């Protein structure tokens, strides 16, 4: 860490000039530690070490990279749990290969357009159901209630419509 601190301070002094450098040794140490954690999260040899490093990450860009690209579902899921950016979550909800991760992300989405797209287009009924349960667009719900290939998704769309109208419905 000492070497990283020295390098960070030297870079700051060289780039910003002596009078403009507000980087403290403590800050440099924290940056160096996060850089090392990011390297482990992205390049660790085994899933367990990558998952452990991912839990320590604070950089949203690195978390997004792990969530989108790690070969292990558990590591991706751990990164997704820490992501708060709605746009990043939206991309993951549409692009993630593991349907259980997509479903978990859908539970955190609020974008009604994206939820409608997922409710209509996702390949897995239980992911579509998760989206249906968050939809507020009656027209989309009506279409899903009439046309979805899955009986359970159609039923859940009818229940959601009833909830929005304030009328009781049976599951």
Describe this protein with a few key phrases:
single chain; 171 residues; mainly alpha; 11 helices; 73% helix; disordered N terminus
Care to describe what's here?
It is a single chain. The chain has 171 residues and is mainly α. It has 2 domains: 1-15 and 23-83, no CATH class; 86-171. It is 73% helix and 0% strand. The chain is built from 11 helices and no strands. 29% of the residues are buried.
Structure at a glance:
By secondary structure, the protein is an all-alpha fold. 73% of the residues lie in helices and 0% in strands.
* Helix content percent band: over 70%
Biggest sheet descriptor: none
What gyration radius follows from the Cα positions, in whole Å? 22 Å
Q: Give the helices and strands as they follow along the chain.
A: HHHHHHHHHHH
Q: Shape, please?
A: elongated
**Which whole number gives the mean pLDDT?**
87
Total discrete domains:
2
Q: Got a strand count?
A: 0
The parts where pLDDT drops under 50 for at least 5 residues are 1-20
Oligomerization category of the chains in this entry: single chain
Strand content: under 5%
The assigned structural class equals mainly alpha
Give the count of helical stretches.
Answer: 11
Distance between the termini: 59 Å
Task: Present the secondary structure layout.
Blueprint: H1 2-16, H2 25-43, H3 47-56, H4 60-69, H5 73-82, H6 86-95, H7 99-106, H8 112-121, H9 125-132, H10 138-147, H11 151-165
């Amino acid at each position: 860490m000492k070497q990283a601190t020295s390098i960070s301070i030297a870079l700051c002094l060289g780039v910003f000039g002596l009078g403009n450098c507000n980087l403290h040794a403590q800050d440099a140490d924290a940056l160096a530690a996060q850089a090392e954690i990011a390297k482990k999260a992205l390049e660790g040899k085994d899933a367990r070490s990558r998952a452990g490093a991912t839990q320590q990450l604070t950089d949203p860009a690195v978390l997004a990279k792990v969530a989108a690209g790690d070969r292990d579902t558990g590591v991706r899921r751990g990164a997704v749990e820490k992501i708060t950016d709605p746009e990043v979550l939206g991309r993951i909800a549409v692009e993630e290969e593991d349907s259980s991760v997509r479903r978990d992300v859908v539970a955190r989405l609020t974008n009604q357009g994206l939820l409608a797209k997922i409710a209509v287009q996702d390949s897995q009924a239980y992911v579509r159901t998760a989206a249906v349960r968050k939809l507020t667009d009656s027209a989309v719900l009506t279409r899903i209630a009439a046309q979805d290939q899955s009986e359970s998704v159609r039923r859940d769309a009818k229940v959601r419509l009833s909830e929005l109208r304030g009328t009781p419905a049976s599951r």
